[in-house]
């Protein structure tokens, strides 16, 4: 897990601080999502962030009329963090993340 955490831009300042990385690694869990499963839903209030470490997922936004459109595709090989603002504030999720393939995520709760 520590090797994955070191590659996440959000945790770059922790590189070189093995103690902090060990503490962070103990605080996270793994979650596997099946294809076409929702990781985050736009408008929901969340208290966790996800780091996609394997698989592919699509990011969707909704128009004011509720129509959904694809914004981008994220690839687990880049260890993208999503939902990190939920750890700081109680803002609603700004997008929906839906898996395209089976995905493995590291999960950090508030």
Tell me what the structure shows.
This protein has 110 residues and is mainly β. Helix content is 14%, strand content 41%. It has two helices and eight strands, in the order H-H-E-E-E-E-E-E-E-E. The protein has helices at residues 2-6, 18-27, and strands at residues 28-33, 38-40, 48-54, 56-62, 68-75, 80-82, 96-99, 103-109. The chain has a four-stranded antiparallel sheet with strand order 1-8-3-6. The protein has a four-stranded antiparallel sheet with strand order 2-7-4-5, with no helix packed on it. A hairpin with a 5-residue loop joins strand 4 and strand 5. The longest helix is centred in the first third of the chain and has 10 residues, at 18-27. It is globular and about 50 Å long. The two termini are 18 Å apart.
List the helices and strands and how they pair.
Elements: H1 2-6, H2 18-27, E1 28-33, E2 38-40, E3 48-54, E4 56-62, E5 68-75, E6 80-82, E7 96-99, E8 103-109
Antiparallel strand pairs: 1-8, 2-7, 3-6, 3-8, 4-5, 4-7
Describe, in short, the structure shown:
The chain is mainly beta and 110 residues long.
